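CHAIN AND CONFORMATION:

***
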Amino acid sequence: MLDLENKTKTKELLEQKAELLKTIAHPVRLCILAMLIMNKESNVTDIQCCLDVPQPTVSQHLSKLKSAGILSSERNGTEIIYKISNNEVRQIVENFLEN
């Protein structure tokens, strides 16, 4: 909840939220997030096949989402499994794609 009495705190919070929205506001990243919501987790190859974009492009978007703290990854042998680790983003995307 916003504390409008504390302008500095409010500004910082709104800047953080805006950065989060900017990070997810890309069609490829939204598709990655939607896929991970439906499948719970996935590797780069499965995500790349679903999106029909080159693997390096998918990797760049995954890296951006991971750097922002939206995704987590776990190595399983040679593959890396990605999943959404930010519940706020999960809710935003679920609500956004419902309509």
Remarks:
- The radius of gyration is 15 Å.
- The beta strands are 42-43, 71-76, 79-84.
- The chain has a mean pLDDT of 92.
- The longest strand covers residues 71-76.
